Amino acid sequence: MDRIAGIINLDHEQDMLDELTYFRCGAAVPFAGRYRMIDFAISNMTNSRIESVAVFARRKYRSLMDHLEQGKAWDLDRKRGGLFILPPDWNDPTDISRGDLQHFHNNIDFINRTLADYIVISGSQHICNIDYQDVLQEHKESGADVTVIYKRVDEMYSEHERAHKLDIDGNNRVTNIHNDRSSHNVYMDMYIIDKEFLYNLIEKCIAHGCSNFFLDGIKGKLPNIHINAYEYHGTHALINSVESYYRNSAKLLNASEHDDLFKEDAPIYTKVKNEAPSNYTQSSHVTNTMVANGCVIEGEVEDSILFRGVKVGEGAVIKNSIIMQRCEIEEGAVLENVILDKDCTISSGKTLIGAPEKPYVLAKRRSM
């Protein structure tokens, strides 16, 4: 069986989630009650039998490193292969690379030493549950140099405007990569590439002073290289703004959306934190809400997501909100269309109301 190695490239992901990325990179933002956004990228790889994964990180990666540790949660704490968190280390005085090609150049040993024949390269902003073995099979059958993954999006939102789009011919060959807002073929920042082809392309890009491997080395080589397109059909979310984070989180309250993303045969893994089961008192009233373990709920919660260890006081009302780890909502407080980052406290009787299209966001460790 052909082997695949994985690279999660965070270099070009902008921290555009406002208060949620004040203290962390976007890949480390909590999502769906108990996960981080990067959990989906890593779980997709391990579920696809990828045993060696590198993470290219440049900014605000302390929280990310704390979460990933040695990769045990994803069965990547191995003697051979495993998880490699690769922050900047620009110590080569002969290095002329720029942009994310610095990561590829300075960590070229990861590519050289892996026993894999193919490399999957992914970001963290596209949330999905995909089997890369299916992508590899189509990649080999097509004879392509690169296979990029895309989602045909029926309804366009603001987050899709910044995403790259694909033009595809009748043979699934990519003919153009662009930012046309009218196109519905959204490139998911994921592609599979032959290891030797990747190595040679990196060398050429650096020699020509390029700074963005995908834009210069792949998009810039059209039509001289064969780029195949693989269509992903499952649940998908692109999160590159507070509004997209809020809206796509709310979609998970729909059972079919949730079950398609969190599949029994392809689970999403995360760092284990053992907590007691959540406690619902007689005064509590909870409807259509995702509640993680360790919560104590005495008030009313509706159409919301509560992360681990949240406390909701008696008489408090929470609607259409996302409350992250260890927040405390005291008695009589009212929250609607609100996102609270970790360790926030809302005092008794306080009211916070945002708009559905622009939720009120409170940065971590704040009190009101």
From TrEMBL:
GO terms for molecular function: glucose-1-phosphate adenylyltransferase activity. The keyword NAD does not apply. The keyword Glycoprotein does not apply. Keywords: Glycogen biosynthesis, Nucleotidyltransferase, Transferase. Residues 20-155 form the Nucleotidyl transferase domain. Coiled coil: none annotated. Residues 281-351 form the Glucose-1-phosphate adenylyltransferase/Bifunctional protein GlmU-like C-terminal hexapeptide domain. Its EC number is 2.7.7.27. NCBIfam families: glgD. Belongs to the bacterial/plant glucose-1-phosphate adenylyltransferase family. This is Glucose-1-phosphate adenylyltransferase subunit GlgD. It comes from Halobacillus kuroshimensis. The lineage of its organism: Bacteria, Bacillati, Bacillota, Bacilli, Bacillales.
